[in-house]
Design brief:
- The chain has 190 residues and is α/β, with parallel strands linked by helices.
- The chain has one domain.
- Helices cover 31% and strands 25% of the residues.
- Strands 1, 2, 3, 4, 5, 6, 7, 8 and 9 form a nine-stranded mixed beta sheet that branches.
- A hairpin with a 5-residue loop joins strand 3 and strand 4.
- It is globular.
Length: 190
């Protein structure tokens, strides 16, 4: 079992690089159960002011957490982070336990996880007593360079849910990930 203080230099580099590439501002630690803590960062976003479809297939019914992308289109924090990570040369995707947004954002959503991420998720899901291919609680966005993984949990106007904390803490407890591979990103509306 990894201690809360365990460090993975390669993973830390990926998170640090991703943070820099995305223009995120590192903030306080997020304290979790079992003495574990993960980093957090903020991303300044502009709220979406256009029409909303409130359709699962179109905008995931994100409502007030929708944002305006740089090109003026409707977006969300997950899609913006995936796009930024991809432009940085990483294989990145939005991991969804409950599929939505495919009409608008299909290019950002992973329907099949890359092997490195799928293997880690399977270990965590099994430790939680779930099917290995379940996705419940998995951080919203994952990215990999083929050697390291970064996990980003996205929040706009909400807190981390119990299932998300359970996934992260269990992953840390069984050594599937290190705290240096996780970043909670809070969208701050400007």
């Amino acid at each position: 079992m990894m201690s809360p203080q365990s460090r993975n230099p390669a993973a830390r580099g990926l998170i640090v690089e991703a943070t820099s590439a995305l223009g995120l501002e590192l903030t306080d630690l997020v304290h979790l159960a079992g003495g574990f803590s993960v980093r957090s960062a903020t991303m300044h976003i502009t709220a979406w002011s256009g029409a909303r479809s409130s359709s699962l297939a179109d905008d995931c019914r994100k409502g007030s957490s929708l944002l305006a992308a740089d090109d003026g289109s409707m977006s969300c924090l997950e899609v913006e982070l995936v796009g930024g990570l991809k432009s940085f040369g990483l294989d990145a995707g939005w991991v969804q336990a409950f599929p939505c947004g495919g009409t608008r954002w299909a290019g950002s959503i992973w329907r099949t996880l890359p092997p490195l991420i799928a293997d880690r998720n399977a270990r965590v899901q099994q430790a939680l007593g779930r099917r290995p291919n379940a996705l419940g609680g998995h951080p919203d966005v994952a990215a990999t360079d083929g050697r390291s993984v970064a996990y980003l949990e996205c929040k706009v106007r909400d807190r981390i849910k119990v299932t998300q904390v359970d996934w992260i803490v269990t992953a840390l407890q069984i050594g599937a990930i290190s705290a240096d591979e996780v970043l909670v990103v809070q969208g701050v509306i400007v």
